[in-house]
Amino acid sequence: MKKWLVAASAAMVFAAAGLGAAQAETYPSRAITIVVPFSAGGPTDTVTRLVAESMTKTLGQQVIVENVGGAGGTLGAARVAKADPDGYTLLLHHIGMATSATLYRKLAYKPLEDFDYVGLVTEVPMVMIAKKDMPATDLKGLIEYVKAHKDTVTYANAGIGAASHLCGMLFMQAIETPLTTVPYKGTGPAMTDLLGGQVDFMCDQTTNTTGQIKAGTVKAYAVTTKARVPSLPDLPTMAEAGLPGLEFGIWHGIYTPKGTAPEIIAKLEDALQKALVDETVIARFAELGTAPVSAADATPAALEAKLKAEIARWAPVIQSAGVYAD
């Protein structure tokens, strides 16, 4: 009986392995969904839709973008963590994948344990902007203004853990002035209220702000990169504008649920690599103030290393600020 059980168990293991190999061989046979854990119209959504369109051509199946916003991106990430690891449900997330590990006391997933990796996509600069009728004309003036009106000025963000939240937190630390923050369920609605003058200022990715800056519907003050952004050459860096040390970009990566077959991940990595050298993607990224990562960074190993390093980098910053969410 024991021998029969062992043999049966072994047969089941081999059968499962064979099924997995067969699935990987025919993958993809239907549409693939990339979950964006933020609302439509935001910067991560924009990046995802450009990449998804190109990956569709390589994979031969439609790559659909689904927005699952809320809780600083953790709702969408949790959904993908619990999905079948069959390659048909992916996650494109930004730096919030790393900061959520410290920000949230009750996280429904483990960033380093519940996902497999496809590769990095892009690293987007941030830019400080304000409503069109903000009196300040440069970053120095903006800092003076918000300090003088710290009890009434409002800073918009896309929710705890969002890129705009992190930038605002670093800005307030740098100027040593706490401000009233107004969280939204995504950058899209935050931008809408900024344009309408319901909030005063925010810091967000160039992928979401470049169009508004060029149209003159918002005031722009400085970018968070070491060098100026080619698509916004007249904007100084934070250091040039008088606030050194506030430098960081918002990186994006593609994940799958843990347990995805290596053969499937390899096909997704290949599609991502081809998307990042797609002339249309490169041109659109440039218009938005960013660029695709190198081929060496668009790999599972590079994304895993980046996530581990960023969790370690942001944990003490968040702990020092004392900002947590349930």
Automatic annotation (TrEMBL):
SUPFAM superfamilies: Periplasmic binding protein-like II. Keywords: Signal. The keyword Signal applies. It holds the Pfam family TctC. The keyword Magnesium does not apply. Residues 1-24 form the signal peptide. It comes from the Bacteria. Belongs to the UPF0065 (bug) family. This is Tripartite tricarboxylate transporter substrate binding protein BugD. It comes from Oleomonas cavernae.
